[in-house]
Amino acid sequence: MDDPKSSILDFYPLDFELDLNGKKQEWEAIVKIPFIDEARLLDAMAGRDHRLTDEERRRNAFGTSTKFTYNPDEPIYYPSSLPGFFPPLHRCQCVMEPFDLPTLDGLHLVPGLCEGVFLGAEALAGFPSLQTLPHSASLAHHGVNVHGSESRNKSMVVHIENPHEARKSQEIAEEMVGERTFMGWPFLQEGLVVAVSDPLFKYEKTSIVADGPKRVISTPHMQQGPGHWKMKAERIEERYSKRLGVITGEVEVLLHVRPLKGLKRLETGALVKDYEGQNKEVEEAVQMCLSKVASEDSRFMEREAPPLADEFPEGTRLFFLGEHAYGVAAQVSATNETNLSVMLAIFPTDKTETEKFKAIVDNRAAAQYWPSFKAAETIGISGRALSKIASSLMVIGLDGQKINLGLSLKFEAKALKVVNYSRKEGRYWEFSQKAIDLIREYKEKFPEVFLNLDRGGDEMARAANVFAAFDPERRIKEIQGWLKSKGVRDFEPVSLFCDQLSKDTVTEVEKLANHFNTTRNSAGIKKAIVKGIPRQAVLKPAHALYRLQNQRFALGDRVTMVQDSGGVPLSAKGVVIGLNAKSMDVVWDIPFMSGVTLGDRCSEYRGLSVPFNSCLNLTNPQFVVRTNSKEPPPPSRPTAAPFKPRFGPHPEVKPAPGQQAAAGFRPPNSPSQGPVRIMSNPNRMMRAPANGHQHTTHHAVHQNDGASINSTAKSPAPHPNRDRDNSTPQADRQPLNGSGRGAHGPPPRGGRGHVPRYADRGRGVLRGNYRGRGRGTAVTPM
């Protein structure tokens, strides 16, 4: 395939042309390479057959089928089938035996479906069917847009019959709020209805009094609510119509649904359904939802807690969650009706090893990043040019196709970055030295690209203008080849909140793990039996999916695998070297068959990305169960900031020091900030005393519109916005000339020869003192 003298070298060209054929991504293109001539290929192979060994010839020949069966007995050692590429299996629990494929032996194949098969609305859970909703269909021109452009030919359009068309919203809410529903037709997904809404009201179930029965309460929309509701309804109807070819009819009622997330395990051992929170609530048209299905999904059915003896039979392998041996592998030795006894296998050095791994990560040399303005200054370009070249730079080619000549190091709208090249601190982008060197080399090789980056306007640049001094088509291919040689198209954008360790730090972690592996031996294991522990103090591998939800991890955390499925051996330990949105990269202490290098960051067969709920965090224990009620709880120690991946194009960030906050951002109250005292205004709702006497009976308070309201001067109602005052005691206040502007009108003025008791005009918030605006002398209120 790569011999320069090969007679079939032309079958495997190193450089070949890609025909996009209207597509946008390179992986969608047609690879234009020659078809392989079978006769030439066999002739070339015949000249090399004599070089094969007898074993290689046997491998190339057809053999018998083999059946692999799990062997619960003592594991055996299985040597590598391809030394140097596949590692040996040290604990193989599999038996191989020849398997003869079954034959018909006089029987015949029966075409068609089996008798009693479930079809349509009766199909088993997970099998979609249009028959679950009443509908009709017609062939017509509808302009369905699936791949970016509307269809020009006829499409099969489905019309949904709305069974709730003649019902009132209140009636629908009484029936469906608090109940489960199935949405996403025809790929049904279960959810919980938390509210129902129509153009005027939102219907929710709540209690009128504490501990009272819940009733459906209708709440009017806010001022802009009806408009927003109509936009949502039209958007749902438009999506079904133009994207899916489904005519739902007018959307008059929406269901607010929280999708089913899975099952969660209670401390009692029971499994109950767990729905998403309010932030993942979705709206769906009521006519597109089902209240019940013919076949329930057995994976998500709630179950009562089984007896301890059935759930934890003797010899079951599990993990201990007690405070003194958290995460230690254990085995059930005995059970009774309320608790169980387990045998622990403890390495006394586990705690010390965990601290040493964390110390390597804490003491690592952090990569240096430069702010965007500093990076632009170093490269010798403007900040605008840096922003364009570091993201997607689209150029229109001679054939009218859009071509991306950018480095794709940052994605502002999608909140994505490229690890080791870019990151975002607060509201500003930063670039590493690797990114700066890459951009500088790009500028040196293709300076004409950078000459057009400072051009204003939103119009997309054309290749004929950018490469006026060159052959545009050939120059674009040169740039694309250079970008490919630098691995730019292999960059994997990740969330702004993802992080990973450098290769040097991972190497240190591996060296320490290898050292512990060589010094550790089975003689150092200490066994202990713990009796009378509750069900929740142990973790069964099959329960990890339900119990280890919302667990937090940080770089350098020591973890142990607690799931008995997947490629990582059970109870294997490792160190977190990368955090992604839904998984984490771990370098494990031992190699295993399905291990990878995690992009050449670790040794072969030592790395693997695993879900968060498949491992137990040993550095930061979060599921500790106290097994000794007499002992005080251990003091909580400060840990690193937890990793909480956030999704969406606009992550909430704080403004930089000295900068104005963005719209909608409200910084939290300082812990040292005292409570705000809401004081009543003694100058409001009071009249000036007649003839020097103060009246405390009912009187009229004049409003701005000239109306009057009977009120009592003894206890004026405070207003949260108008009655704020300093906490200075009233007796300590001194007269001060000052005034403000407010909503309340002034009290009646005193006459020329009369000194009113209150001379304030009432135009502002009190500032601790009073200023007279009448024609007499201001008097301090008593």
So, CATH architecture of the largest domain?
A: Beta Complex
**DSSP strand count:** 38
Low-confidence stretches: 637-782
Radius of gyration: 37 Å
Tell me the name of the CATH class of the largest domain: Mainly Beta
Name the structural class.
alpha+beta
CATH topology of the largest domain: paz domain
Q: Give me the oligomer status.
A: single chain
Strand content: 15-25%
Rounded to the nearest angstrom, the distance between the terminal CA atoms is: 103 Å
Main beta-sheet annotation: 7 strands, antiparallel
Task: Calculate the mean pLDDT score and round it.
Answer: 81
Q: Domain count, please report it.
A: 6
Helicity range? 10-25%
Tell me, briefly, the overall form: globular
Count of helical stretches: 14
Region (Disordered): 626-782
Pfam family, one: SH3_12
Domain 5'-3' exoribonuclease 1 D1: 112-303
Biased composition (Polar residues): 705-714
Outline the structure in words.
One of its GO terms (cellular component) is nucleus. Residues 1-63 form the Xrn1 helical domain. One of its GO terms (molecular function) is RNA binding. This protein is an alpha+beta fold and 782 residues long. The protein folds into 6 domains: 9-60, no CATH class; 65-99, no CATH class; 128-300, paz domain (Beta Complex); 310-361 and 501-617, SH3 type barrels (Roll), CATH 2.30.30.750; 369-499, no CATH class; 681-782, no CATH class. The protein is built from 14 helices and 38 strands. The strands form 11 sheets. Strands 9, 10, 11, 12, 14, 15 and 16 form a 7-stranded antiparallel beta sheet that branches. Strands 29, 32, 33, 34, 35 and 36 form a 6-stranded antiparallel beta sheet that branches. Strand 14 and strand 15 form a beta hairpin. Helix 7 (372-379) runs parallel beside helix 9 (433-445). The longest helix is centred in the first third of the chain and has 19 residues, at 225-243. It starts with 16 loop residues before the first strand and ends in a 71-residue tail after the last strand. The relative contact order is 0.06. The model is unreliable at 637-782 (pLDDT under 50).
